[in-house]
Amino acid sequence: MTDFDFAEIGIRPMQVVDLDKVMLVERAAYPIAWSRGVFEDCLAGKNICYVLELKGEVVGHAIISLILDETHLLNLCISPKNGRQGLGRYFLQHLVNEAGARESSVFFLEVRASNTGAAQLYFSEGFNEVGVRPNYYPAKKGREDAILMTLDLSIDQYV
Fold this sequence. Notes:
Blueprint: E1 9-13, H1 19-29, H2 36-44, E2 48-54, E3 57-67, E4 70-78, H3 87-101, E5 106-112, H4 116-124, E6 128-138, E7 143-152
Parallel strand pairs: 4-5
Antiparallel strand pairs: 1-2, 2-3, 3-4, 5-7, 6-7
């Protein structure tokens, strides 16, 4: 269910001037957020960085890394105030299409074991669980496992 008109959504490359807004979304969404320095490094490096805008306001961001024929989702974040509206699915589909257009054969990601909502989104979009990375994420108390998921982009429907 969406609470917006798709004409109100924009996805564009992230710029340094977006980082204040990106940090607001990141900190609102995650108890242990990426630092501004990590985003600056992503922008300066070879990662592909996007922001998602709703009615001209930054409400999400994503970072992907492309190495050879593999795409790795490093961060996908939607503002909690805009959650459960279909924006995460829309953004994910855009990223998968981007990976396919760049001739990636596989798209992979890690998701916190406790983030069942995100895991369900990924499953519903065709991702499969292929493993667990023990103690991958920092947590308020210790570390948390990550579920490793992949999507085969070599299947005809994605290329």
